[in-house]
Amino acid sequence: MSSDIARAAVQYHYDVGNAFYDLWLDDTRTYSCALRDGPDDTLEAAQERKLAFHLDAIGADRAASVLDIGCGWGSVLERLALTHRVPRSVGLTLSEEQASFVAARGHPGVEARVQDWRDHQPDGAYDGIVSIGAFEHFARPDDTVAEKVARYREFFLRCRDWLTPDGTLSLQTIAYANMSRDDASGFMQREVFPHADLPTLSEIAAAAEGVFEIRSVHNGRLDYAWTCEQWARRLRARRAEATALVGPDTVARYERYLKLSALGFRMGKIGLLRLVMAPYRDGFFR
Ligand SMILES: C[S@@+](CC[C@H](N)C(=O)[O-])C[C@H]1O[C@@H](n2cnc3c(N)ncnc32)[C@H](O)[C@@H]1O
Q1: What three-state secondary structure class fits 14?
Q2: CA of 280 to the centre of ligand 1 (A)
Q3: Atom of ligand 1 nearest to the CA of 130
Q4: Residue 1 pLDDT more than 80?
């Protein structure tokens, strides 16, 4: 997929407007699966736990430089700057609105770029790379499986080359699970995430082979079902304001997409993978 198509596809989804997402995301402005702990958890606490999971995985306390591929509205970047005092963090997004939002926060050492990872030229090596909820956008529905794996492998090769030898990649992505990609929802592919296709765990493993060691994999699909249900509940509660901002069709589209996604995760048709990965160097295992 060319960078232009990737950018247009991502902007279609994310540039609906920051004010719209503000109505139903929690205060961390995190737009990805939370990490739930028990029935009394709140969305915000679960999002903080998720962020802490990824920041711990990359050793943020010891890091001098971190890359966030698909930084959204900057929840990882903010914690890198303010909690972990990381001197330099770079976030990549394809959304102008997200990059402007992050820039306006003015956190020390943080830079958000409107840039596809394929065009990224780092200023120096990164101690850690986080990528949450972006991998879902890398392949497209008409790719063959071989093309998908090649695209993912290119991503892993870049990440490996950008990391220090002891660096870590913490990756979170939705994946096809107990369903075939041929049965993917046309509504989701046409109207919610155009030009996007999910990976499978085996495609990720094949793409990473010989490039990254997969240190751990967790499937948090029920966490994502719950997260989507929380978002849907919050959007419903603010429906009138949302409709005034983006119109009834867009609100109906988001409500339908959140409901379908929650159902897909509950049924195990799709999964939510959290992978912690360390680069192979010089053909030996660290
Ligand atoms: C679902 S959002 C997740 C944002 C954030 N990580 C979070 O958890 O809140 C996906 C993000 O990936 C970005 N993205 C998608 N494809 C990308 C690409 N090829 N290069 C850089 N960023 C990309 C989008 O712009 C968006 O910021």
Answers
A1: helix
A2: 25
A3: 6
A4: no
The DSSP bridge partners found for residue 75 are: none
Q: What is the CATH number of domain 3-20+44-221+270-279?
A: 3.40.50.150
Share of residues in the chain with pLDDT > 70 (%): 93
Which residues contact residue 182 at a Cβ distance below 8 angstroms, ignoring those fewer than 6 apart? none
Which residues, other chains included, contact 187 with Cβ-Cβ below 8 Å and sequence gap of 6+? 256, 257, 260
Residue closest by Cα to atom 5 of ligand 1: 72
Kindly indicate the confidence band of residue 126, based on its pLDDT and cuts at 50, 70 and 90: very high
Instruction: Give the DSSP H or E segment for 72.
Output: none
CB 96 within 8 Å of CB 117:
no
Q: For 22-34, what is the mean pLDDT?
A: 97
> Ligand 1 centroid to 81 CA: how many Å?
19
